[in-house]
Sequence to fold (80 residues):
Amino acid sequence: LVGPLRSGRLIDLQLVPMLDALYVSSGFSDGVMRLMRRADWFERNYSSPFGYELSPYMTRVERQRAREHTLYAHPGSIWA
Fold:
C-alpha cells in the first residue's frame, strides 16, 4: 500500500506529463477538478472523486485517524 493519499494540487497538472505518470489522489478543489477533467492525461487519473475509491485500486485503513489520513492505493493493481 502507498499512502495516505492526499488531495490534488495545481502543480500535479504539470508533474504527471513531465514524469509520464499515473495519478492517484483523494480529491481536489472544484477548480482543480475542472482542470483535471480537461487534462490530456485524464485517462491516467485514478482518483477518488472519479469513482475509484470503491475499486480494487484503493483501500480505506481505519486507524482512529481523521478520514483524510486513511485512503491508500494499491500500486500493483493500478499499474496492471
Remarks:
- The beta strands are 58-60, 71-73.
- The longest strand covers residues 58-60.
